[in-house]
Amino acid sequence: MPGSPIIELRNLGKHYGNTVALDDINLDILDNEAFALLGPNGAGKTTLLHILCSILTPDSGTATIAGFDVVRQPLRARKNLGVVFQEPSLDDRLTVYENLDFHCLIYQVPARERKRRIAEVLELVELSDWRDKLVRTLSSGMKRRLEIARALVHDSRIVFLDEPTVGLDVQSRARIWGYLDELRKRRQLTLVVTTHYIEEVENCDRVCIIDQGRIMAIGTPAGLKSDYGHQSLRVVPIDADALGEIRAAYPEAGQQDDELVMPVPDDRFAGAFLARYGNRVKEFVLDTPSLEQVFLALTGRALRDKEASGRERTYAFGRRGGEHTR
Ligand SMILES: Nc1ncnc2c1ncn2[C@@H]1O[C@H](COP(=O)(O)OP(=O)(O)OP(=O)(O)O)[C@@H](O)[C@H]1O
Q1: I need a surface site. Which of 35, 62, 278, 287 has the fewest CB within 10 A?
Q2: CB of residue 125 inside a 6 A radius of ligand 1
Q3: CB atoms within 10 A of CB 131
Q4: Matching Gene3D superfamilies, A to Z (predicted)?
Q5: For residue 233, how far is the Cα from the chain centroid?
């Protein structure tokens, strides 16, 4: 169960020249919750995570992790943090084991514990059999799993994942969420995830919708849907006459090809429509509120531009030969 705040942001601001990346952000993330930052391209998600990791310095405001200020006490703030960055950051000239061992060394994991912890995280992400393989021989899905293992190996209490599933196929994405769920059952862990896959944030305890550096709404997926979503009725009339008749009766209906979409204002609406036009339609679907609708209502945009950016990144990654040697 989520507990008290473990990450606290107060009046946090960050500019790049004239671009406002974060505008007066106030936010508490709770111990042991799965928290999603959802926003389109350029919303400020990566900037926020980079400030929390002490990679970037904010222009104004404060951010603390477990009570430690990320600017004044960066080492202590980072001690309990595991990070999976958007861009792959493994050393592909080393083996799976060596990557993890090196990370343990940096985080001062005692030598006698290293082997056990590495074996544990490799088992979790199903890479035990790949322990001695060079990272360059792994598929992109396996590399992501290894990065997750690396973020966990120093027993981090908080894990940041910046677009952990971007560029992966549906099965690999489901697998990664499977590991994260399993992990949260095994131990206390706060997950902070940025994603543009709306279906992924349904798994999270709370979702923060961010756009142009500002928080638009925070809540549970169900709470956001009931506060900002709405039901809609989609019908396909039997012919052009029926379509014209229904359009005239419901001028608020939107039209897509031969389908009409009507906002549902109350519980009686669908029944009343059916009683009147039931024999004039060949398809009738009552859509439940979705987070997509919530996002659209709050930002005035769909998340599609973000998808293009994810794809571009994947292509860029492919152009570099699918490898990263940072
Ligand atoms: N180094 C930089 N120099 C100038 N502008 C930047 C820099 N990094 C980010 N920005 C701008 O700041 C804003 C926030 O970017 P940020 O990368 O934090 O967004 P994001 O939500 O993580 O999007 P994405 O997932 O596409 O990276 C954007 O307008 C972006 O163009």
Answers
A1: 278
A2: no
A3: 14
A4: P-loop containing nucleotide triphosphate hydrolases
A5: 29
- The rounded distance, in Å, linking the Cα atoms of 297 and 15 is 26
DSSP output for 161-188: EESTTTT--HHHHHHHHHHHHHHHHHS-
CB 195 near ligand 1, within 6 Å: no
What ipTM, to 2 d.p.? 0.96
- Contact at 8 Å (CB) between 54 and 74? yes
Residue listed under structure tokens 């990654």: 317
Domain boundaries, the chain: 5-226, 231-288
Q: What is the CATH number of domain 5-226?
A: 3.40.50.300
Ligand 1 centre distance from Cα of residue 289 (Å): 30
For residues 288 and 225, give the distance between their C-alpha atoms in angstroms, rounded to a whole number: 9
From residue 232, alpha-carbon distances to 202, 246, 253 in Å are 20, 15, 10
Q: What is the DSSP string of 58-97?
A: -SEEEEEETTEETTTSHHHHHTTEEEE-SS----TTSBHH
List pLDDT tens digits, range 93-142: 999 999 999 999 988 899 889 999 999 999 988 999 999 999 999 998 89
- Cβ–ligand 1 contact at 310 (below 6 Å): no
Ligand 1 centroid vs 147 CA: distance in angstroms?
22
**How many Å apart are CA 204 and CA 38, to the nearest integer?**
11
CATH number of 231-288: 3.30.70
